[in-house]
Amino acid sequence: MRVGVPKELKDHEYRVGMTPAGVRAMVEAGHEVLIETGAGAGSSFDDGEYAGVGATVVPSAEEAWAAEMIVKVKEPIASEYERMREGQVLFTYLHLAPLPELTEVLCRRRVTGIAYETITDKHGGLPLLTPMSEVAGRMAVLAGATYLQRAYGGRGILLSGVPGVLPADVLIIGGGIVGINATKIALGMGARVTVLETNAERMRYIDDVFHGTVNTLASNRSNLEAVLGFTDVVIGAVLIRGHAAPKVLTRDMLGLMRRGSVVVDVAVDQGGCFETTRPTTHSDPIYEVDGVIHYCVSNMPGAVPRTSTLALTNATLPYALALANKGVKEAVRQDPGLWEGVNTYAGHITCEAVADSQNRPYRPLDQLL
Asked: Do residues 135 and 284 share a domain?
């Protein structure tokens, strides 16, 4: 199979869909890899490293997109829509629920869209979302700490405090992978941490693993409103696989927070879990609503691309190899978790959560294969 790896075009997106080690594995399996020149530069992989393991370095995005399967990191942006074609396999993060235009393009062009974020493992986990959730969760606390600084409009609080001065209060909504990793960093920086979570067993797990140093609360409106008044940083870490994120922090709740507090919405890729969320970029990361600083960068891990690319491709490579070795039909038939990753196929939406979020028709994949 010919596999294309184009350069990412999203603002300040420096990750790349495949490392030289991944290319080597693909080539050794008998596949041809076309990588756009400079695609790996942001992650400190130069063209020579790719050529040295057998990749064909091509001078344009059009040539990279000419492959049968495209391996990317982020969803295509508008300037890439015309490069997709019927029967092509697109293997990347898609986050289609809040993106009806991209969904329409994938269906109209009859692209097989396989989304990293909806692939499951045998335990029901999300193996390709997990590594970036780990990165984003850890980065979310750093972002909150940064924008609490007065120079950015924050309250002027040091997250850790100092002897004689109380530390900041960090509220994390959601105790999944993002939430756990945010908790690790917030505690490590000396903050006082509260986690809101809907699952009682998860709260027990958090209490055990952090030895009672984290406050856990059942996630509901009453508890959320009760803690917002003394919270300095809120991190939104809510995920419902494939669906648009629920709006758990409404605009009226911002009035309970102190001016200069910071909210960080890690769920922005799925539409955001704050009512006031709108996607931002690394070039222009923050905005203010009712005196509260909002950080809603939709590709947070792209700021640390070397770490992120290595972590992501460790997880994606086995699936990419399976798709290339067996073809889509056989690969998904043999792996129920990979089957769950197919969001569009032959002009139809094959992920029920995406169809529900967009109020569009859903077609089960088994009716199409």
From this structure: yes
Answer yes or no: do 317 and 253 share one domain: no
pLDDT for 240 equals 84
| Same-domain status, 270 and 357 | no
Report pLDDT digits (tens) over 327-356. Answer: 999 999 999 999 999 999 999 999 999 999
Residue 76 in tokens: 């295509």
Give the C-alpha distances (Å, rounded to integers) separating 341 from 92, 109, 156. Answer: 10, 18, 43
**Of the residues 256, 282, 303, the one at which a domain ends:** 303
Q: 207 phi and psi, to 5 degrees?
A: -60, -40
Is 275 part of any domain?
A: yes
Percentage above 90 pLDDT, the chain: 96
Q: Would the pLDDT of 224 be above 90?
A: yes
DSSP characters over 285-344: -EEEETTEEEE-BTTGGGGSHHHHHHHHHHHHHHHHHHHHHHHHHHHHHH-HHHHTTEEE
Report residue 266 as tokens.
Answer: 């890690």
- Number of neighbours of residue 209 by Cβ within 10 angstroms: 12
The last residue of a domain, from among 271, 286, 303: 303
Q: Do 338 and 262 belong together in one domain?
A: no
CA distance 37 to 10: 17
Q: Which residues are catalytic?
A: 95, 269
Q: What is the pLDDT of residues 160-185, one digit of tens each?
A: 999 999 999 999 999 999 999 999 99
Domain count, the chain: 2
Token couple for 323: 């798709």
Q: Are 219 and 79 in a shared domain?
A: no
Give the 3-state secondary structure of residue 43.
helix
pLDDT tens per residue, range 295-317: 999 999 999 999 999 999 999 99
The domain in which residue 134 lies consists of: 130-303
- Which residues does residue 113 pair with via DSSP β-bridges, in sequence order? 90, 344
Is 243 exposed, middle or buried (CB count within 10 Å of its CB: 0-12, 13-18, 19+)?
A: middle
Q: Identify whether residues 188 and 290 lie together within a single domain.
A: yes
Question: Do 79 and 173 reside in the same domain of the chain?
Answer: no
pLDDT (0 to 100) of residue 243? 85
For residue 145, being part of any structural domain is answered with yes
- Cβ-in-10-Å burial (0-12, 13-18, 19+) of 210 comes to middle
Task: Please check whether residue 28 lies inside any domain of the structure.
Answer: yes
